């Protein structure tokens, strides 16, 4: 078992190194807007990966992950404004604080099932961001306008003209590779095995000696931590933490990305996050090219979301990752026929 575990870690380290190199080469080939989109893809993938572990691996439904992203973003905004901590320490603090909140939510979630769990997390998604406009917290959290975030500039060693968008893309890429490395090892660990057992049959898992409630709480803890880190990167990249950015739409977008990519698949989380991030830009370009009326123009992204989701579900019910696996099997069968 130890030898297999070491082999898995080494393989994941190799993939992480290659992924980091690929993201670096991609970032230096992009213009500032492209680097901004790359940073957005990175933090969206981090949140989606955490959600796919929660829903795909442990079988718990969450419609409220936008609230955890908000906690990470506001933690970052407050720490940078009042404590002037180094950015790395701020990212860690936002992750830890949100993970602790996720553990508390997980305690309650472990007692709920199905639509009751979905309803509880939906209430979290709607209620938590609106606290920023509560009269007792309005001064501290900026009310409906939110807080302006001023992250540290790129190191002077990179040059005065170094684009801040590329610096943010590098930070996001490093965080993304680290998160995927840790989650990939978690999936292969005894905890990941317990999560799969709980997802398949809680009663059978309990009879097998699996601590069901603790496993579910740990899944929420991990997933919320990922969302908190994503929120910290969101605030850093967009220079803003406002309640309007973390509404129900964000939670549904993250769930859409997880479903599109394939629940339970970390590679699928990447595919889904890329689509969710780039589809609005593509749809806007399409609407402008077609010279559509304004009332139609505003609805093009929603229509495109729906079309893509329906097509993916019809062709690949298991998400895009299942399609990639099918394509791989087809190619291998043609190259090595029996």
From TrEMBL:
Superkingdom as given in the UniProt entry: Bacteria
GO molecular function list: branched-chain amino acid transmembrane transporter activity
GO cellular component: a single term: plasma membrane
Transmembrane segments: 12-30, 36-54, 61-81, 87-109, 116-132, 167-187, 217-237, 257-279, 300-320
Predominant location: membrane
Location of this chain's protein in the cell: Cell membrane
Pfam family, one: BPD_transp_2
Keyword check for Transferase: no
Alphabetized UniProt keyword annotations: Cell membrane, Membrane, Transmembrane, Transmembrane helix
Membrane topology reported for the UniProt record: Multi-pass membrane protein
Database matches in PANTHER family: HIGH-AFFINITY BRANCHED-CHAIN AMINO ACID TRANSPORT SYSTEM PERMEASE (PTHR30482), HIGH-AFFINITY BRANCHED-CHAIN AMINO ACID TRANSPORT SYSTEM PERMEASE PROTEIN LIVM (PTHR30482:SF20)
Protein name: Branched-chain amino acid transport system permease protein
Species annotation: Amycolatopsis sacchari
Lineage summary: Bacteria, Bacillati, Actinomycetota, Actinomycetes, Pseudonocardiales
């Amino acid at each position: 078992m130890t030898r297999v575990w070491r082999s898995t870690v080494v393989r994941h380290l190799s993939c992480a190194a290659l992924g980091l190199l690929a993201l670096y080469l991609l970032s230096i080939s992009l213009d500032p807007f492209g680097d901004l989109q790359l940073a957005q893809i990175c933090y969206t993938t981090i949140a989606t990966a955490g959600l796919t572990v929660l829903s795909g691996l442990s079988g718990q439904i969450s419609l409220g992950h936008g609230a955890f992203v908000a906690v990470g973003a506001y933690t970052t905004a407050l720490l940078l404004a009042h404590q002037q901590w180094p950015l790395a320490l701020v990212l860690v603090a936002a992750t830890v604080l949100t993970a602790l909140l996720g553990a508390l939510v997980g305690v309650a979630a472990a007692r709920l099932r199905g639509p009751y769990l979905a309803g509880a997390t939906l209430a979290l998604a709607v209620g938590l961001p609106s606290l920023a406009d509560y009269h007792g917290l309005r001064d501290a959290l900026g009310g409906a306008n939110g807080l302006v975030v001023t992250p540290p500039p790129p190191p002077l060693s990179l040059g005065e003209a170094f684009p801040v968008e590329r610096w943010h893309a590098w930070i996001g890429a490093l965080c993304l590779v680290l998160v995927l490395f840790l989650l990939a090892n978690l999936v292969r660990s005894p905890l990941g095995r317990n999560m799969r057992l709980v997802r398949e049959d809680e009663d059978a898992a309990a009879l097998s000696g699996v601590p069901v409630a603790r496993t579910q709480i740990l899944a929420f803890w991990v997933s919320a931590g990922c969302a908190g880190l994503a929120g910290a990167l969101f605030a850093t990249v967009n220079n803003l933490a406002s309640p309007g950015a973390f509404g129900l739409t964000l939670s549904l977008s993250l769930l859409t990305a997880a479903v599109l990519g394939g629940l339970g698949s970390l590679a699928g989380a990447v595919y889904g996050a890329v689509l969710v991030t780039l589809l609005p830009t593509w749809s806007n370009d399409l609407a402008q090219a077609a010279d559509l009326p304004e009332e139609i123009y505003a609805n093009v992204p929603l229509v495109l979301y729906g079309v893509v989701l329906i097509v993916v579900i019809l062709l690949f019910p298991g998400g895009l990752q299942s399609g990639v696996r099918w394509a791989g099997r087809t190619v291998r069968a043609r190259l090595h026929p029996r």
